[in-house]
Amino acid sequence: MKLEERMVSSQTIFEGHLIKVTLDEAELPNGKLAGREVVYHPGGVTVLALGEDGTVPLVRQYRYPIQSLLLELPAGKLDKDAEDQLEAAKRELSEETGLEAEEWTYLGNMLFSPGFCTEKIHMYLARQLKKGSQHLDEDEFLNVETMTFDELFARVMDGTITDAKTVAATLK
Questions:
Q1: Secondary structure (H, E, C), the chain
Q2: 130 within 8 A of 22, measured Cβ to Cβ
Q3: Contacts of 18 (CB under 8 A, 6+ apart)
Q4: I need a labelling partner for 31 at 20 to 30 A (CA). Which of 74, 112, 130, 143 fits?
Q5: Which residue numbers are catalytic?
Q6: Contact (CB, 8 A) for 56 and 145
Q7: Are 152 and 171 in contact (CB under 8 A)?
C-alpha cells in the first residue's frame, strides 16, 4: 500500500516573522480527505562545544511559550533565505557564548514534531575552542553555564535537562 498523502488544497491562516501556518486538505491512501494543520519553520542549528578540559557551555534562558527557564546547548534558527547550516552554527556559538571553534563535525539532523511542523534542527560538535566575545541579539537574554560532558550526559539521562535538541545532540 502506498502510504503517501497528497495535498488537495492549502490555505495560509497565519504568517509571522518566524512561522507560517496552513490549513490543508489531504487525500489519504484510501482516497478519503482529511484536514492537516502545518507549521512551516525555517529550521535551526545547535552546537555541542566540547572544550579540551571536557567541559561544555550551555545557555540558561527563559522560554516564553512554556513560561520557564531552560538549560540548553547554544542554538538558533536559520535565516529564511536558506542560510548555510555550518555558518549559522558558527554564528550562534559566537553570539551566545563568545566561543569560536577550529574543528566542526556535523552530527546529523532531527525532526522534533513532524506530525505538524517542518522544523529540522542540524546538530554540530565543535572542538578546539577559542574565547572571543559574546554578542547577543538585542532581544536575547541568557546566562552561559559550563559543566563537564559527563555531567551534561547524566542530566540528560536523569531527565533534568529536557530540551529536545540538547538531549539529541548530547546522545549523538
A1: CCCCCEEEEEEEEEECCCCEEEEEEEECCCCCEEEEEEEECCCEEEEEECCCCCEEEEEEEEEHHHCEEEEECCEEECCCCCCCHHHHHHHHHHHHHCEEEEEEEEEEEEECCCCCECCEEEEEEEEEEEECCCCCCCCCCCEEEEEEHHHHHHHHHCCCCCCHHHHHHHHC
A2: no
A3: 41, 42, 77
A4: 112
A5: 138
A6: no
A7: no
Q: pTM for this one?
A: 0.93
Cell, residue 171: 546522545
Are the C-beta atoms of 7 and 24 separated by less than 8 Å?
Answer: yes
Look at the block and give the residue holding cell 498523502.
5
Residues written for the chain: 172
